[in-house]
Amino acid sequence: MKKIILLLAVIFSMNSVMAQVDLITKHDGEVVKGKVIKLEEFTIVFKYDGEDAENTISKYAVEKIVYGKSGRVEQVTEKIVVSSEDDWEKVVILEDISYVAGLKKSGEVRGKTGLINYHTGNTGDKKAEKKLKMAAAAMGCPFILQTADKSTVGASSNGLGGSQNIKKGLAYKY
């Protein structure tokens, strides 16, 4: 009888220890077990279960967090589904490398306007951004980490005095 009571006590203590672990569910289906330290504007800082090192993951990669102590479920972000180039408007351009932590790099993308064009500075920038997003959408990637944004105007652009906008980035998916 004492062995049964001891066994039950061990099982209940194990369950209470396991219940303290936060579960971070990513959009790709992976579940990370650990302890959420803090939520920032674009990132989540956490520690893996049994470790002391702090890790960072992008909020864009996380669907929800289930807190172990309270059982509360917090929805973090909605999954962005990009199935073709027509979904280019859904693509999000990110400017900090920490915002892509936990996402998978797919390749480089580029968007630019022609050397000879009739765009003003602002419309040329918008056209280059659209082409950049379309390139990522064609790859099925909802995120771009922008790595370069170059605008040239007048004689420094080309011999005809036009303007050109060039944007480069790395495409990411879940």
Features:
174 residues; alpha+beta; 6-stranded antiparallel sheet; 2 helices; elongated
Describe the structure.
The chain has 174 residues and is α+β, with helices and mostly antiparallel strands. It has helices at residues 2-18, 121-138, and strands at residues 22-26, 31-39, 43-48, 54-58, 62-66, 73-75, 92-94, 104-112, 143-153, 163-173. The protein has a six-stranded antiparallel β-sheet with strand order 4-3-2-1-5-6, with no helix packed on it. A four-stranded mixed β-sheet has the order 7-9-10-8. A hairpin with a 6-residue loop joins strand 5 and strand 6. The termini are far apart.
What's the SSE pattern?
A: HEEEEEEEEHEE
User: Would you tell me the overall average pLDDT?
Assistant: 85
Tally of separate helices: 2
Q: How do the strands of the widest beta sheet line up side by side? A: 4-3-2-1-5-6
What is the molecular shape? Answer: elongated
Profile the largest sheet. Answer: 6 strands, antiparallel
Strand content: 35-45%
User: Helix share of residues?
Assistant: 10-25%
Low-confidence stretches: none
Backbone CA Rg? 23 Å
Structural class per helix/strand content?
alpha+beta
Find the count of extended strands (DSSP E, 2+ residues).
10
Distance between the termini: 52 Å
